[in-house]
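Human: If only I could read backbone structure tokens as easily as an amino acid sequence. Underneath my words sits a plain record pairing an amino acid chain with its backbone structure tokens. Take your time, and here it is.
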Amino acid sequence: MRYVCSICGYVYDEAKQGKPFAALPETWTCPLCGAAKSAFAPEAAAKSAAPAPAAAPPVEAHGEMRKLSAGALSILCSNLARGCEKQYKDEEAALFREIADWFAAAAPAAEETGAAALSARMGEDLSSGYPALRGAAVQAGDRGAQRICVWGEKVTAILKTLLERYQREGEAMLRDTDIWVCSVCGFAYIGKEPPQLCPVCKVPSWKFEKIEGRASA
């Protein structure tokens, strides 16, 4: 039996590894991207699990469009900056980052919701948010949005597995290791060195940024 990582596509082949996947400890992680064991599925199931595009929501009239908060606009501009960076449009990326920083400074401080609430919100994004976005992108024939959706799903999935792991292991999870984040797609990796290639967007290791811990108050 072969098991496939839903994040990076790594295949655990029981015949080659000489050990049943079920016998691996629950603390085992993907050797390529660090995803939790729960992110794997049998190869046949993984191929058939690709969700069908969801029906796109109706497009609102211009006069009824919802206003975005400063925080949401900061996130939007930050994502646009990453998209420009991926296309090597450095000047445009810098401008979007400047706008994102301005909106971030204007946004009110976020309320602390806790790990459980954050994990639940990520689950909602994976179960309903991204399928709806993918459906709208497919309906519009927007291949760029479809690619961003794929990246977003994988990044959200790895963040959810890392959060769940942190809830189980606590600070021990981060002992004697580092946190790296891809500056292009946002993929997060736990290890002494970043991966040679980002498992999501395939940029080289130098595109990863090391995240430093916050200083104690």
Observations:
- Strands lie at 2-5, 11-13, 40-42, 179-182, 188-190, 208-211.
- Residues 157 and 166 are 14 Å apart (CA to CA).
- Helices lie at 14-17, 43-48, 70-86, 90-106, 115-140, 143-169.
